[in-house]
Amino acid sequence: MKIVNARLRGSSGLYSIDFDGAYFSSITPQDRQLTSDTGSIDARSRLVCAPFVEPHIHLDAALTAGQPRWNKSGTLFEGIECWSDRKSMLEPDDIRNRALETLEQLVSHGVQYVRTHADISDPSLVGLKTLCSLRDELSDKIHIQVAAFPQEGLLSYPRGLQLMEQAIESGADVIGAIPHFEYTREMGESSLKEIIRLAGAHDCLVDVHCDEIDDPNSRFLEVLAAEALFAGMGSRVTASHTTAMHSYDNAYCSKLFRLLKHSGINFISCPTESIHLQGRFDTYPKRRGVTRVKELDAAGINVCFAEDSIRDPWYSLGNGRLLRVLDFGLHICHMMGHEDFVRALDFITDHSARTLGIEKDYGIAPGKPANCILLDGEDDYDVLRRQSDVLLSIRQGQIIFQREPAQVVTPKHLSVNA
Ligand code: FE2
After folding, report:
1. 94 CA to middle of ligand 1, Å?
2. How far is the CA of 88 from the centre of ligand 1 (A)?
3. Domains of the chain
4. Full-prediction pTM beyond 0.90?
5. Strand ranges in 257-395 using DSSP code E only, listed in sequence order
6. What is the CA(42)–ligand 1 centre distance, in A?
7. Catalytic residues
């Protein structure tokens, strides 16, 4: 297979992309438009880029909004209560069918890599086991990492630590914690130390729901970063949400960033979810409750965007379209300068791949797996502005789907020549 007349991120001009089976074989600059022939795809001067990455989603809870009741307060904590009620009704087929439908939505919007959390505050571990089975079943179609997530506390939930050890035995790739939800600060700190210890012992990645609260005194991030630093595993550790950082004192933040840079941990922000769930205890002014993405990025710290929820007890919208999340994130974080737009896709591609630890096999370069998407736009700015459709998705050299560009079929109402 071959793609001709493609634009690539960060480059001017047009390129031909050659495939050798499941791998890219060469990327060649063109000096003119080429005519496509049989077996080649004409990108028509549109952008070919690496597939989108969804680094933080809850597939076990997806599509359950309103079951058995709606989250009326819009808070994280009522969401956890609603989910606790729904969780008692979970069955493998129920989880599997909703996860598959959600993955279909993600794939149709250009995603080929997913990290899903699975709630393990459940003695049956049905969510984790079902998602691990689905991961293995779909391994040649989509890359899935399963994170064991103790939604109701690693230490506060009965036998939480033993359930985490069972989750690791059952095949979790990633392990997590929720320190701000533990009963006490001491338990929150201990939960992070336990997770780093377990990750080191079992060679797991770490992804913590960290400081997902507006409380400026929620400072578990410094504990996570220090533990990761001293364990020498910073690049394998991720702090998700960190919304309390929005409310931290600037002097404390300045000191904190030194540690964050030394530790090398990754960050995931979920801007649509956080702006909905946070600020709920404020009157006016209302905090945005989104972590300091712009400042983290400027400090050279790896940070990416995720959707977190698709129609679940915490967030009842969502559709798998990461360009929408990126649009929200850039607005909310004041990242609206031209210098932000020209590299906007970094936050749903390269940065996310680094968070998942898959960067070695990710990207468009000779010798890498032939995974890519074709977007209906010329560059990052154009794609973001137009919220472009994904016209083509290729995985391991095979076309997953193709979509024709949308066209207006009615007469040109405003045409001066009409
Ligand atoms: Fe989450």
Report:
1. 20
2. 19
3. 2-50+364-402 (2.30.40.10), 52-361 (3.20.20.140)
4. yes
5. 266-269, 303-305, 372-375, 390-395
6. 39
7. 212
